[in-house]
Design goal:
Structural class: mainly alpha
Number of strands: 7
Shape: globular
Distance between the termini: 81 Å
Radius of gyration: 26 Å
Number of helices: 23
Strand order of the largest sheet: 4-3-5-7-6
Largest sheet: 5 strands, mixed
Length: about 550
């Protein structure tokens, strides 16, 4: 047997082993949390069900059956078999979650193969980075649910591998295949547009203008069809629902409202959060400033590793660059987005660390001064020693976070609280009622009711410098015909707008029930909400009355 074939089998076996470990952890990580605790997961499941039922790509639980233009179709389409084959919704949800755990294992195996085949790391190091990246609390957070990240990562790593192994003399059909795979990634998560940009740039660098033209045409044929649909269907999204269900372009424009200062403020906030998130991985016990500084040092190593890897893996290097630029400017907190990018960043940081260590050896070899040469060698030992200590610490903390199932707490708690609301809604409302809630897709998925968001938020609370006018919330309830409003009473940012609405429209909302878990349910008086004689301002007595009712009511009035 040829030696290179035997080596390849060993490398493949290591990758499969890593994938099997991650898949086992991913399946074990699944819990009994309701589908919808992460908001998007209930939407994915609902879109798949709509397709199965022949309702089209629409969110049929909203008052106007809005088209699902914010959510690309590949992941919802992948959920169709679970609805078709499962005997009940609960069994379908369970199968979807288990599949995501397995998907994450496949993604981890492909990640290890990517690092090995592109020559970025040796097989043992690539396997170690794969385990450190995927067997972690943050990665299980996006695995333990019906979210698109696991499938996205499978397609991402497969596309990067194919793109970076495409050489100058590649046939057009190869370029078309790479571009079509990139298009599928985009249609799994819109942030995949950063992969498309990286792949086309890599094709241009290696295959010239003709190559990038071929790839661009193939990519545009697929992604362009989806964008054309979103542009045409965007007109069907009612204004009050745009912040939740409009296209990403609509969402961004409604958030920054054409203000460069708001856009810069968002970018500054996101950059700090990204640095802190990266630093927290390596130095969780220090303060926010020190974590941000650690994040900067981590990115320095990433840059060193990226420079070393660029010739052999241009698409894989460019993808994180474009990705970080996009999540730095977007109007979403970047934490969940950083989690999905972390494996590649860690791999480049390891390459950069090895580059730093090798630099000291080369410096020692060139030096004619024995003292300098010895100090350079000691520098190598110090760099590698520190890297080993950090890896051990990171591995210990990640394994500990997984063993403690850190992702369970918030998800289970939100599920228990919402389940009480689900039971009340099922027993006290009619199928024609419209209920507003923070997790409106989840409430709709389990009750069959028409639901809407309970807040109007064109800009995430992270970036808001002033409260949204009460009239916008009144418009949401009025235009969508809300009959009931539900809000978790212990979530201040969720309560505040409703509190303000009660102050300005004192007769519009009346507390009718408070669940044991603290969800306050209010009946909407449509006539009072439509009245133009607003009382003005948040009245202190009204606020006190709402808080008192929230704390003390436990039965239907």
């Amino acid at each position: 047997m040829p030696q290179n074939f035997a080596d390849r089998k060993q490398r493949l076996a290591l990758a499969i082993l890593v994938g099997a470990v991650v898949a086992a952890v991913g399946v074990w990580a699944q819990n009994d949390a309701l589908v919808g605790v992460n908001y998007d997961d209930a939407i994915y499941a609902s879109l798949a069900r709509s397709l199965v039922q022949g309702d089209g790509y629409r969110l049929t639980y909203t008052p106007t059956d809005v088209p699902g233009i914010k959510y690309p179709p590949v992941y919802p389409i992948s959920l169709i078999p679970f609805w078709e084959l499962a005997g009940s919704p609960n069994s379908a949800f369970r199968a979807m979650k288990i599949a995501n755990g397995i998907y994450m294992g496949i993604a981890a195996a492909l990640f290890v193969i990517l690092l090995i085949e592109l020559g970025l790391l040796s097989a043992p190091l690539a396997s170690l980075v794969g385990l450190l990246s995927f067997v972690s609390g943050s990665m299980m957070l996006v695995t333990a649910g019906v979210l698109s990240e696991p499938l996205y990562l499978i397609l991402l790593f497969a596309t990067l591998l194919l793109a970076d192994r495409t050489q100058k003399e590649a046939a057009d059909r190869r370029l078309v295949l790479v571009a079509l795979l990139a298009a599928v990634v985009v249609l799994t998560r819109m942030i995949g547009i950063t992969l498309a940009a990286a792949v086309l740039t890599a094709i241009w660098l290696r295959c010239g203008r003709r190559g990038v033209l071929v790839g661009s045409v193939a990519l545009a044929a697929v992604v362009g069809a989806w964008l054309a649909f979103t542009i045409a269907a965007a007109q069907q999204i009612p204004g009050p629902l745009v912040p939740r269900y409009g296209s990403y372009a609509q969402l961004y424009l409604s958030g920054v409202a054409g203000s460069p200062s708001v856009a810069l403020d968002v970018a500054a906030t996101n950059v700090g959060a990204i640095l802190q998130s990266l630093g927290m991985k390596l130095a969780p016990r220090v303060g926010a400033t020190a974590q941000a500084a650690t994040g900067v040092l981590f990115l320095v190593l990433v840059v060193l590793g990226a420079r070393k890897s660029f010739d052999s893996a241009p698409a894989t290097v460019l993808y994180p660059v474009f990705y970080l630029v996009l999540i730095s400017t977007w109007t979403f907190p970047p934490f969940r987005f950083v989690f999905a990018l972390y494996p590649l960043l860690l791999a480049f940081a390891v390459v950069g660390t090895l580059q730093l260590a090798d630099w000291s050896v080369k410096t020692a070899a060139r030096s004619r001064n024995s003292w300098v040469a010895s100090r350079c060698l000691w520098w190598r030992y110090a760099v590698l020693g520190l890297a080993v200590l950090l890896a051990l610490d990171l591995g210990y903390r990640e394994v500990r976070s997984v063993s403690r199932r850190v992702w369970d707490g918030a998800e289970i708690a939100k599920s228990q609280v919402t389940w009480e609301l689900i039971e009340w809604v099922a027993g006290h409302t009619s199928t024609d009622d419209v209920i507003a809630y923070e997790f409106d897709p989840m409430l709709a998925l389990y009750t069959g009711r028409t639901t809407i968001p309970n807040n109007y938020e064109p800009l995430h609370v992270w970036y808001r410098r002033a409260p949204e006018p009460v009239e916008r919330l009144a418009e949401l309830y009025r235009e969508m015909g809300a009959d009931y409003v539900a809000v978790r009473g212990d979530v201040t940012v969720a309560v505040a707008p409703i509190d303000a609405l009660m102050g300005e429209y004192p007769e519009a909302l009346e507390v009718v029930h408070v669940t044991p878990g603290g969800v306050v349910i209010l009946k909407v008086d449509a006539e009072a909400l439509a009245a133009n004689d607003a009382q003005g301002g948040v009245n202190g007595s009204d606020q006190t009355e709402f808080n008192a009712r929230s704390d003390g009511e436990s039965g239907v009035r």
